[in-house]
Amino acid sequence: MSETVAKLREISDDELVRLHDAHAKKTVVGTTHYLAELGRRDQQRATDARLRYTRQMTRMTVVITIATLINLILIAVTLVR
Question: Considering only CA atoms, which of 38, 3, 47 is closest in space to residue 23?
Fold first, then answer.
């Protein structure tokens, strides 16, 4: 018997792992099981890379914004003289 979607969403990650491991002892898997895990890992690596790029872009944006503000201040000071 399987849980409803609502029940599955209520179960903690640790409990899901425990339930999986208990059922896995009685189940035979095909090669797709391993391919799915490889795909999940590839997706996680891609997600991690996108997050790194996003952080780099955020830092670059902050640096460029600060440089632009400094440039504007220098221009304003020069024009006031």
Answer: 3
